[in-house]
Design goal:
about 475 residues; 8 helices; about 65% helix; alpha+beta
């Protein structure tokens, strides 16, 4: 009963710091969200309800990082407060070990870890999928704002536009290239400069171009139909049909929009494709090798199944055979090179899906490691635990992110095994945590031994 009361007391000291850390980190993420997307929403005229929907869906991937990140500062603040109030010393003097102090927090964190695994596997993929669909729909709304400097833009249906310089305040543009792909005759319009304006009354994007050319070829098969028209002033009106937000449903999902089951099915498909590709490469190489032997060594025809003996070839025939063999060898090389590229692409996809599968387990498990790391560090630092919690938490997140992001890039390039790439940060921090726990526990044992000797001396003095 006493231990249950102690467990509840230790857990109650973590609730406040955890929600405080959760609120602070969430505030930082929300401010980053506002800075990143506010101008885009205002410029596109997105409705308030759509902004709320976008923000709600964005919380999905935010909380995937916020929830584990809040564990470390909460553990540091909670155990730091217990240590500064000498409650850790009191519990230790009552026979409560360091492992027993951490046990209730560790059990609660284990429950949180399991819940996060389900969250990463079920809720997060669907949230990412809906967010991706909404981002695409918002991107198609008022696509004129997507025309940026030195970037080809195909936001307007039937047009590809490149602008070298653009002044958003005056609408002036320079180095304009417009490729009109719709209609019977594709056109290429090139101009030194001009002005781009949007008329909201009739939903038309107007290009007023100066000093340019129009290139057309009505019949692509006949070069003689090519014509070039020079102009001093030319006006092009493009109907902005995507002014309003249109909802669409994208069926394709990338790796971050899939559950573990979906990704494992994809891995099985890519593994089957890779096996077929390898078998085809081996067969092509073997067939070519046998063909070369048949031409070079007449006796080698026996290696080919169901092959009839060939008459001996003359010297001139052998001389003519050399270029043919070289051409066939080059053709086989190109086939094998193409197949090798396809095989490497399949293996990269397998590795990418493997990374996402292990990530769904590795990040939730980091909560347990942050507790194991934060508790002994806060107890050892004592009264300084409150002051170092923020700095050490930021440092820990930075190092963990480097492990996570760096490992993901290495695994995507097939330079590291996917499970090692995602679990390397956990392994590193777990090793550091075990070292801290071991040293802290030894210090506690030494303190108790001195205290026990002091009590024995006092008893002898009074006896």
């Amino acid at each position: 009963m006493k231990m249950r009361i102690l467990d509840r007391y230790i857990l109650s000291n973590h609730i406040g710091p955890y929600f405080f850390s959760l609120a602070i980190i969430t505030f930082v993420f929300v401010m980053d969200f506002i800075i990143r997307y506010l101008d885009q929403f205002i410029g596109k005229g997105v409705s308030f309800l759509t902004v709320i929907e976008f923000f709600t869906l964005s919380l999905g991937h935010m909380f995937a990082l916020i929830i584990p990140m809040a564990v470390m500062p909460a553990t540091l603040m909670a155990f730091g407060q217990l240590s500064s109030d000498n409650e850790v010393t009191a519990m230790r003097s009552s026979g409560v070990s360091l492992y027993r102090m951490i046990a209730p927090v560790l059990a609660a964190t284990a429950v949180l870890t399991v819940a996060l695994i389900f969250y990463f596997n079920i809720l997060l993929p669907e949230s990412n999928h809906r967010l991706a669909n909404l981002m695409i729909d918002i991107g198609h709304k008022k696509p004129t704002l997507q025309i940026k400097e030195n970037i080809f833009s195909d936001a307007l249906a039937g047009y590809t536009i490149l602008v070298r310089e653009k002044n958003d305040k005056t609408g002036e543009i320079k180095g304009v290239q417009i490729f009109e792909l719709k209609g019977q005759v594709p056109k290429a319009i090139i101009a030194a400069g001009g002005r781009m304006t949007y008329r909201d009354s009739d939903k038309v994007l107007r290009f007023e171009l100066d000093d340019g050319e129009i290139h057309e070829m009505p019949d692509p098969a006949n070069v003689e139909t090519y014509r070039r028209t020079q102009f001093k002033h030319f006006t092009l009106n493009i109907q902005d049909t995507e002014r309003t937000l249109r909802r669409s449903e994208r069926t394709h999902r990338n790796d971050r929009e899939m559950t573990i089951g979906m990704m494992r099915e994809k891995i099985v498909e890519y593994e089957a494709t890779s096996a077929t590709t390898r078998a085809h490469m081996n067969q092509v190489a073997l067939d070519h090798f046998i063909a070369v032997l048949e031409r070079a060594i007449p006796e080698a025809r026996a290696l080919a199944p169901n092959a009839s003996p060939a008459p001996p070839a003359s010297e001139s025939d052998r001389t003519q055979e050399v270029p043919r063999i070289a051409a066939e060898a080059e053709q086989i090389r190109q086939i094998l090179e193409t197949e090798t590229y396809a095989l490497d692409s399949n293996l990269r996809q397998i590795s990418r899906y493997g990374v996402e599968i292990h990530k769904k387990y590795a990040i939730p498990f980091s909560c347990i490691i942050f507790v194991l790391l934060g508790a002994p560090l806060a107890i050892r630092s004592g009264r300084r635990g409150m002051t170092i919690s923020i700095g050490f938490s930021i440092l820990s997140f930075l190092v963990y992110y480097i492990f996570l992001n760096g490992g993901e890039k290495l695994a995507d390039r097939r330079l590291m095994n996917p499970w090692l790439a995602m679990w390397l940060g956990n392994i590193f921090f777990l090793a550091v945590a075990l070292i801290f726990i071991s040293r802290t526990n030894r210090e506690f044992a030494a303190i108790d031994w001195k205290r026990l000797n002091l009590l024995k001396r006092r008893r002898r003095a009074y006896s």
